[in-house]
Amino acid sequence: MKQIFIxxxxxxxxxxxxxxxxxxxxxxxxxxxxxxxxxxxxKYGEFxxxxxxxxxxxxxxxxxxxxxxxxxxxxxxxxxxxxxPIGDWVHWVLYNIPPTTNELKENIPAEKILKDGSIHGLNDxxxxxxxxxxxxxxxxxxxxxxxxxxxxxxxxxxxTKKQLLDAMRGHILAQGELIGKYQRKK
Length: 186
Description:
CATH architecture of the largest domain: Alpha-Beta Complex
Radius of gyration: 18 Å
Strand content: 25-35%
CATH superfamily of the largest domain: PEBP-like
Strand order of the largest sheet: 1-9-8-4-5-7
């Protein structure tokens, strides 16, 4: 067993792949390319303006992305807060975004199906659309994750994050994320 570990360690040094990449390849999945995700409203790791939170009008922030690979059939978005007291709290689930889309404007309507065919899942408030940061205490992190998929998903409106992740398994071509922070105004 120790010899196998040494051989694997040496292999990592020579082929310059991370352990996650090796695991992905051994599971018959390709290495995931990176998507760059940005917002004109806040930079990576910075605080999210209160307009996009429960302390204000609680509209979705504008998002932009690049690096969508050829062969992408749809894009999915998940926004969640891993710092919530009860565990991961889901703020936004959106899928079947057309593959030619490279941005979401501010204040996306909370409709089940958008005009471009994008479909909203349910957030953890059991509502369609975006629900902004509203942490009970302290500073929380909010992950806006974009996934390029090689399929258009066969999911009805109202899918949960778990259902979306299950449907995306084995179909992710690339992914990226933008992290923002927020602390309630007292």
